[in-house]
Amino acid sequence: MTAAGRVEYYYCEVDTWHTTHANGIEVFYFPNGQTEAHHPSGTKEIIFPDGVIRRVFTDGREQDVTPEQLSGPVKYPMPEDRDLHATESSGTHGPAHCRVIWLERSKLVQL
């Protein structure tokens, strides 16, 4: 857990970061550049690689929004590789080239 109360995981098989914030919002950073914030209420905020920003409500409604309308956690930058410390995988999960990754402030997992 970070000092700010975030827990950060890296799923190496799919090259995806998953950050859980203290307020329960989960943010996913996908390798194609898409970022999604999943709120405890079920609402999602999605930043698409082409720059479109959309809010999806639990009833299925969708609304395009501006960057200023996004919640704080989805605006956090993706964790950077420079913070990583890689170790050889000793487990049987995942492809052989996938490594178990550890972040100084939280454990990153291999699924």
Which short descriptors sum up this protein?
3-stranded antiparallel β-sheet; about 110 residues; globular; about 5% helix; mainly beta; disordered C terminus
Characterization of the model:
The chain has one domain. It has one helix and ten strands, in the order βββββββαβββ. A hairpin with a 5-residue loop joins strand 3 and strand 4. The C terminus is likely disordered.
Q: Mind sketching the topology for me?
A:
Elements: E1 7-11, E2 16-20, E3 26-29, E4 35-38, E5 44-47, E6 53-56, E7 62-64, H1 72-75, E8 84-87, E9 100-103, E10 106-107
Antiparallel strand pairs: 1-2, 2-3, 3-4, 4-5, 5-6, 6-7, 8-9, 9-10
With helices defined by DSSP (H or I, 4 residues minimum), what is the helix count?
Answer: 1
Helix/strand-derived class?
A: mainly beta
Q: How would you classify the quaternary structure?
A: single chain
Q: Extract low-pLDDT stretches.
A: 85-97, 99-111
Shape, principal axes of CA atoms: globular
Helix content: under 10%
Residues in β-strands, percent = 35-45%
**Ends: how far apart?**
19 Å
Q: Largest beta sheet: what is the strand line-up?
A: 1-2-3-4-5-6-7
Could you give the order of the helices and strands? EEEEEEEHEEE
Biggest sheet architecture? 7 strands, antiparallel
Mean pLDDT level: 76
Total domain count: 1
Number of beta-strand segments? 10
